[in-house]
Inverse folding.
């Protein structure tokens, strides 16, 4: 979709009022253009002696209403000018009203769709764009487009119409004065055009630099604890300074290009105005044109040069808007995840089979290399392995955050790719590695997976996750605000809250992705036993680096560099050579020494 099609699509339903806004602008420019004609008639025919050419104007000025005297005629001229100003204002109001309604609607729809695309895009999207950049595209880029639509685009019609009308009137009044008045217009236009070409690239670079700056800022605010804990303030400040410097230089270049353009454009405009006044006065003295014509041309030259100069501004804003639209369009054209496609509305039992599964985030670099295992409904299965061995990747495949490249994955005998993503995610509850909480109160955070949960259910799941006592110690209890703006929870409290949030909904398959690492082993065991007691048929998948966490599992799958190296129960694995036995020995020694 090109830029025009994009704007046109989002203006649906508001195109007519936007057209009215352009129409009102054109009408108001007609009234603007008439005023100097009234002044010319006043000077030449009311103060001077030339007869009024137009019949109806003659009739208007000789109306008996104000007596046919000079002061009566002057009063009529003044009233006409006042009426023209009122009408200009009225139509400018209509233009502002309609253009704002259309542009605000456009901006809102763009933001809505950008947000929905961000939420619905597949997982690759988040590794492609940085969060600061995404925020900038949804805010300042949309704002640039909105401003262009509400101001500049409406002005294009007015500018072209005004220039055309003024040129027509000038050439009808005096050919030679019109020629003198327009001699520099082509030069002015060419300068404007070349400026527009140059400035577009500069705007793009400045926009990208601003996005980089926002990203650094956003990262530092989110990770302020890490920054402070490692005393990285100076390093981060320097990093910010470099980006800030780059943005300042690019912005400064832009301002400089603008300054050069406006000064050159001012010079041409002043020369042009001066020529009209000097040569026009000479013609007036020689009585080749009337004084009224000179006065009218003095007004018209300002009015003509203004739209041409305005065109420069419109062109430069057009450049900026094109860049913003391209950045917005990039996000909007990202492929959306179709979470509904496939078998829907089924309750899974949790029989999971992986047969020679291969997967790589980049196809040429496999992360999982021929993984095979089988999990039966109701079993607790643990994945154990060194960091980066592919444990979380297996979970991502199960949730269809990514689709596997080769082999076969089935749940309850159905190939994974045939089950809709929505159904899968409604059946698989995950407690992720990072325990992110929203800026809401504890109760609302727990209810996120089950909006209609009762207060009793919230308390019950908090008790199961062994976090109820901690919550009751907070002053506001379940009403305590957590997340970015709320109270600071310990790592273990956050983890247990995310567990409560997941178990409140009874998923047939439950996954703990290293999500009890900040909880002591005793509490961990207690939590898992409580969960197990609640649903015996639930399939549970555990990922942990602790032998004590996985040793009671029905099956332990040991992974190394994307391959299954051992598989079996704890008793079986400690009798086999390999990573599991090695880690068990080390952790046993440490345990014995600390006891
Ligand atoms: N989104 C991604 N894009 C590209 N590579 C990725 C992505 N996520 C993980 N990886 C890579 O895939 C490999 C396996 O990562 P994974 O997170 O599955 O390991 P893990 O066994 O869960 O590690 P840990 O125990 O440290 O959590 C790593 O080399 C990692 O760098």
């Amino acid at each position: 979709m090109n830029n025009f099609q994009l704007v046109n699509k989002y203006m649906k339903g508001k195109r007519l009022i936007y057209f009215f806004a352009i129409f009102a602008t054109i009408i108001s420019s007609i009234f603007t253009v008439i005023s100097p004609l009234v002044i010319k008639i006043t000077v030449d025919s009311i103060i001077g002696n030339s007869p009024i050419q137009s019949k109806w104007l003659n009739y208007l000025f000789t109306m008996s209403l104000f007596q046919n005297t000079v002061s009566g005629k002057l009063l009529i001229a003044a009233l006409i000018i006042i009426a023209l100003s009122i009408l200009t204002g009225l139509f400018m109001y209509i233009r502002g009203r309609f253009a704002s309604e259309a542009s605000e609607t456009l901006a809102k729809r763009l933001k809505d769709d950008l947000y929905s695309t961000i939420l619905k895009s597949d997982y690759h999207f988040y590794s492609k764009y940085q969060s600061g950049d995404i925020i900038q595209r949804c805010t300042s880029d949309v704002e640039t487009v909105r401003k262009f639509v509400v101001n500049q685009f409406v002005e294009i019609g007015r500018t072209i119409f005004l220039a055309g009308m003024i040129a027509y009137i000038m050439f009808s009044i005096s050919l030679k004065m019109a020629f003198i008045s327009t001699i520099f217009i082509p030069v002015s236009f060419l300068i404007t055009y070349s400026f527009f070409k140059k400035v577009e690239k500069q705007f793009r670079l400045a926009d990208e630099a601003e996005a980089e700056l926002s990203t650094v800022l956003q990262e530092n605010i989110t990770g302020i604890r890490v920054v402070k804990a490692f005393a990285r303030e100076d390093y981060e400040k320097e990093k910010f300074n470099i980006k800030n410097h780059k943005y300042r230089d690019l912005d400064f270049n832009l301002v400089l290009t603008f300054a050069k353009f406006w000064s050159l454009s001012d010079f041409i405009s002043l020369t042009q105005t001066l020529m009209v006044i000097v040569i026009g006065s000479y013609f007036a003295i020689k009585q080749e044109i009337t004084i009224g014509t000179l006065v009218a041309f003095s007004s018209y030259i300002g009015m003509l040069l203004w739209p041409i100069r305005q065109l420069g501004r419109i062109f430069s804003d057009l450049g900026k808007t094109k860049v913003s639209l391209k950045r917005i369009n990039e996000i909007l054209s990202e492929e959306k995840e179709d979470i509904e496609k496939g078998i829907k509305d089924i309750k899974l039992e949790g029989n999971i089979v992986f047969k020679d599964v291969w997967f790589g985030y980049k196809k040429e670099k496999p992360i999982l290399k021929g993984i095979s295992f089988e999990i039966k409904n109701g079993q607790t299965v643990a994945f154990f392995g060194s960091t980066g061995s592919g444990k979380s990747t297996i979970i991502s495949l199960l949730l269809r955050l990514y689709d596997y490249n080769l082999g076969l994955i089935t749940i309850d005998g159905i190939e994974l790719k045939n089950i809709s993503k929505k159904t899968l995610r409604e059946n698989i509850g995950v407690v992720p590695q990072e325990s992110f909480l929203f800026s809401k109160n504890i109760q609302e955070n727990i209810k996120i997976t089950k909006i209609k949960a009762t207060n009793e259910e919230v308390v019950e799941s908090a008790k199961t996750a062994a976090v109820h006592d901690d919550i009751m110690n907070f002053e506001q209890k379940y009403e305590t605000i957590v997340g970015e703006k709320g109270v600071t929870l310990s790592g273990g409290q956050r983890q247990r809250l995310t567990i409560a949030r997941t178990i409140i909904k009874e998923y047939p398959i439950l996954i703990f992705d290293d999500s009890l690492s900040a909880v002591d082993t005793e509490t961990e065991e207690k939590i898992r036993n409580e969960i197990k007691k609640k649903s015996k048929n639930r399939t549970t998948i555990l990922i942990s680096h602790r032998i004590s966490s996985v040793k009671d599992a029905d099956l332990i799958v040991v992974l190394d560099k994307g391959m299954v190296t051992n598989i079996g129960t704890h008793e079986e694995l400690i009798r086999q050579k390999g990573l599991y036995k090695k880690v068990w020995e080390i952790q046993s020694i440490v345990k014995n020494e600390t006891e």
